[in-house]
Specification:
Layout lengths: L6 H4 L5 H14 L2 H16 L5 H12 L5 H12 L4 E6 L7 H20 L5 E4 L7 H8 L6 H24 L2 E4 L4 H18 L6 E6 L5 H15 L3 E6 L4 H11 L9 H17 L4 E6 L3 H13 L9 E6 L4 H10 L3 E7 L2 H17 L1 H21 L1
Parallel strand pairs: 1-8, 2-3, 3-4, 4-5, 5-6, 6-7, 7-8
The structure holds flavin-adenine dinucleotide (FAD).
């Protein structure tokens, strides 16, 4: 069975200082009360315009973020390349509500596409829908509640922006992924993503949409999407993830009194994720799969399915990916074996990436067993180095 336990391989690219910092952080993140307190403190500091970059930058930011600008990330892209690990530069600015900021993320996303076009170690570009449009408009578009002409214009602007990015990616021959966020506006994003796939995925998958398998409806959605792709003869690009907003989704459903869109338990999410992998590989002639997970079993499953269906390790239809700063044992082991592996490398100014960082901290608290596993592996590696010294 494929093992992810060789810490020499997993952390070969990390200095002792890197590992000690990671150890310290994962220890802190395993304490829910500490994470909660820090979250409240950041919110207060942000509201009162108190600078907090100094507190975050040396640890949390350094662990999970590539840098402030695209250029800052390039040395990391080269370091990863030495280990056959690719990078996906993820401009992680979220929830832009003011129109005056919108052009900046658009420019930045275009720059990431241009960079991917000239750098063979950057296989994808990516963007977040809420960096292009307010959540309010996305939700109104998703629920058929665009009342005023202005609201309809805003929703159209979103569609146009997505199309500009996808068209640019198409001409530059760069694959582009659309991240998934909250379920209450995802149907609008799905529609736009499907329209883009139909336009640009005729020869190969250029546009990828994200499916969060913690949602009860996603496996059925995948099947129906596949049927439409078959009928209309285009390729599907699918980024599979479990989903990062579970608590928020459940809390909103409870507060507003509608059934939770989230699977009843962890096992159901795992089953749905694995079912989607099986389905994608059964239809690998039409589905390109991007396995976005830190879960070792789901990673092993895709490896096994690739073997079962006779898919080469370097086949562009199958990618494995983990977030920068997490699960290097999976990324570096797979890359060492010759599989397509890419790290998602978020970047952006400290204030702008705070929601991303808070999510990472909370996630590492929520999935305590994984944090524990990561912490153990890092400790093992530090001990191994001590013995060897
Ligand atoms: C490359 C990459 C890209 C990503 N892009 C996105 C994105 O666009 N949108 C997005 O939402 N997330 C995204 N994520 C985050 C992802 O959705 C998960 O939050 C994260 O990866 C943890 O899931 P896992 O499979 O890695 O780990 P695991 O530890 O195996 O799974 C943890 C996940 O299981 C689910 N879960 C846990 N407990 C329960 C429960 N009681 N009931 C139901 N489900 C449960 C939750 O989704 C939780 O996050 C991305 C992750 C990666 C690696």
């Amino acid at each position: 069975m494929l093992s992810f336990d060789n810490t020499g391989i997993a952390y070969g690219n990390k200095s002792d200082t890197d590992l000690k910092r990671a150890c310290y952080l994962f220890r802190i993140m395993s304490k829910p009360l500490l994470v909660k307190t820090a979250k409240v403190m950041f919110r207060i500091a942000h509201a009162l315009h108190i600078p907090f970059a100094w507190a975050v930058k040396p640890h949390l930011y350094k662990q999970f973020v590539g840098g402030e600008t695209l250029e800052d990330c390039l040395p990391l892209v080269r370091r990863l390349e030495k280990y056959n690990v690719k990078a996906i530069l993820d401009y992680s600015v979220e929830k832009i509500v003011s129109e005056k900021y919108i052009h900046h993320p658009m420019d930045e996303f275009v720059m990431t596409i241009d960079e991917a076009a000239i750098d063979s170690n950057i296989p994808f570009a990516v963007f977040k829908p809420t960096a292009l449009c307010s959540e309010e408009i996305l939700e109104k578009a998703a629920t058929g509640n665009l009342k005023s002409a202005n609201e309809r214009k805003e929703a159209n602007k979103f569609r146009t922006r997505v199309e500009i990015l996808c068209r640019h990616a198409f001409f530059k021959k760069v694959r582009i992924m659309i991240d998934a966020e909250d379920s209450w506006y995802q149907s609008f994003i799905d529609d736009v993503a499907e329209e883009m796939m139909e336009k640009f995925n005729k020869e190969t998958a250029i546009v990828y949409n994200t499916l969060q398998m913690y949602r009860v409806d996603r496996f059925e959605y995948l099947k129906s999407l596949y049927e439409r792709a078959r009928e209309k003869e285009f390729f599907l690009g699918i980024k599979l993830v479990r989903g990062a907003y579970m608590e928020k989704e459940r809390a909103r459903a409870a507060a507003l009194g509608y059934p939770s869109p989230i699977q009843p338990d962890r096992e159901a999410t795992d089953r749905s994720f694995d079912e989607a992998l099986h389905f994608a590989m059964r239809h690998v002639d039409r589905i390109y799969i991007f396995n976005g997970t830190h879960n070792e079993n789901s990673t092993r499953l895709l490896v096994e399915l690739m073997q079962r269906y006779g898919i080469e390790k370097t086949d562009e239809r199958c990618y494995f990916s983990q977030l920068y700063g997490m699960s290097d044992n999976i990324s570096f082991t797979l890359a060492g074996l010759g599989y397509n592996v890419a790290k998602y490398v978020p970047y952006g100014p400290v204030e702008a990436v705070m929601p991303y960082l808070i999510r990472r901290a909370e996630e590492n608290t929520a999935i305590a067993s994984q944090t524990g596993r990561e912490l153990n592996l890092i400790r093992q590696e530090l001990q191994r180095r001590k013995k060897e010294a």
